[in-house]
Write a structure and sequence with these properties.
The chain has helices at about 5-25, 35-45, 60-70, 75-80, 100-105, 135-145; strands spanning about 35, 50-55, 85-90, 115-120, 125-130. With about 150 residues, it is an alpha/beta fold.
Amino acid sequence: MGLSLSGFANAQSAEDKEAKVRMEKAAKVKWKLGKNLKAALRQSEETGLPVVILFTGGSWCGYCVKLEKEILSKKEFKKGMDGVAIGVIVNFPSSSDIGKDKDAKKYGVQGVPTMVVVDSEGKKLGNVGYMPGQKPEKYVEFFKKYAPAKAE
């Protein structure tokens, strides 16, 4: 009695094709900070890329201003994040608003700035805040740990 592997091969081939399509979509994602977490999670599901949620306070928060000026606005960060993650920004008008936000509570955000990495189902994978003296490339390196491996 012979053993047929054709069903296995077809399933593997379909998985390979799906992975390739996701990888091609992921490669086209340009880094930007959107405002819709649900849309970002849908895009994450389509691409396999993680979502980086930036919880920030804007101008009232000194470290938020530093993170924007020293890291987020730099071309090394923006270019480095292309095809690595999908960005979402949650901006708090005041520090008292942080504790009221359901996503901040869900991800354990105690202060800003905090960048939380989640998968397509919203499961927390990691987080990072402002790190004085770090270069944009260090942040990109951190986020790449959560991005899908690229095909050789």
